[in-house]
């Protein structure tokens, strides 16, 4: 329940419903009909996703993004970027939806075994009719036995939560520049070998099992990156 509340709070923040700070825990408890412990767990999720600054004795303040936040990609948001992009949600156009067997390259990319069967979903995603990214996602069928055609048109992660109670525990992200191949270039309508920003991600369950891995090629104009970290004092 706290994850659904966290997602609702994040959407409210990105819709500028809380321009300065979050309401008090008491107000949020009444709004979401939840216990104080549930609200605190939800706020912790929002904080870890880089949207809050905690000030002891004063509350949870909204971290202000640059003026044009549609050009800022928050890498700290891990459970469903399609719902969390400012000005969104992103609209998906599914180019490929099928099942494939992992070869050496896919196995290495997704930290799975060669021969594992996976769902493959290739989508172009748009923000207000402007191409935002090309996403190549894979879901091992040993963990995700079924994906519907409807689910891949919308939020796959929301479908996984509702259908299988699957929620990610940790994510490994790797951001780098790559040259797109001919197939990717054709989808993105750019020259073969063109450079673009790529986010490779592997999503794990709490037991360490991979339930999703992906490569996302961002082409939205003048995109910027934001990441939230918690400082650790290595002296203690």
**Separate helix tally:** 7
Assembly level: single chain
Question: SSE string, helix = H, strand = E?
Answer: HHHEEEHEHEEHEHEEE
CATH superfamily membership of the largest domain, which one?
Answer: Chorismate lyase-like
- Provide the structure class: alpha+beta
Helicity level: 25-40%
Strand order of the largest sheet: 4-5-6-9-8-7
- Globally, the shape reads globular
- Please state roughly what percent of the residues sit in beta strands, choosing from under 5%, 5-15%, 15-25%, 25-35%, 35-45% or over 45%: 25-35%
Mean residue pLDDT = 86
| CATH architecture assignment of the largest domain | 3-Layer(aba) Sandwich
How many β-strand stretches? 10
Largest sheet: 6 strands, antiparallel
Domain module count: 2
- Distance separating the two termini: 35 Å
CATH class of the largest domain: Alpha Beta
Relevant terms:
236 residues; 2 domains; globular; alpha+beta; 7 helices; Chorismate lyase; single chain; Arc Repressor Mutant, subunit A; six-stranded antiparallel sheet; two-stranded antiparallel sheet; 26% helix
Q: What does the secondary structure layout of this molecule look like, with pairings?
A:
Elements: H1 2-14, H2 25-32, H3 36-48, E1 52-55, E2 59-62, E3 72-74, H4 81-84, E4 91-101, H5 104-110, E5 117-127, E6 130-140, H6 156-164, E7 170-179, H7 182-188, E8 195-204, E9 210-218, E10 224-226
Parallel strand pairs: 3-10
Antiparallel strand pairs: 1-2, 4-5, 5-6, 6-9, 7-8, 8-9
Helix pairs in contact: 1-3, 2-3
């Amino acid at each position: 329940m706290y994850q659904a509340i966290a997602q609702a709070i994040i959407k409210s923040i990105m819709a500028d419903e809380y321009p300065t700070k979050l309401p008090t825990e008491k107000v949020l408890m009444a709004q979401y009909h939840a216990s104080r412990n549930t609200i605190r767990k939800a706020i912790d999720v929002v904080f870890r996703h880089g949207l809050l600054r905690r000030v002891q004795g004063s509350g949870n303040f909204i971290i202000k993004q640059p003026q044009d936040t549609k050009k800022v990609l928050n890498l700290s948001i891990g459970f469903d970027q399609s719902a969390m992009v400012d000005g969104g949600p992103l609209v998906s156009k599914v180019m490929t939806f099928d099942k494939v067997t992992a070869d050496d390259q896919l196995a290495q990319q997704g930290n799975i075994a060669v021969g594992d069967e996976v769902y493959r979903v290739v989508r172009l995603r748009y923000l207000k009719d402007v191409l935002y990214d090309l996403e190549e996602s894979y879901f091992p069928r040993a963990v995700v036995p079924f994906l519907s055609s409807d689910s891949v048109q919308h939020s796959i992660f929301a479908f996984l939560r509702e259908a299988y109670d699957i929620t990610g525990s940790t994510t490994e992200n790797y951001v780098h520049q790559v040259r797109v191949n001919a197939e990717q270039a054709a989808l993105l309508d750019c020259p073969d070998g063109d450079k673009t920003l790529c986010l490779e991600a592997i999503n794990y369950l709490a037991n360490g099992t991979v339930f999703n891995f992906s490569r996302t090629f961002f082409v939205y104009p003048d995109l910027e990156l934001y990441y939230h970290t918690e400082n650790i004092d290595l002296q203690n």
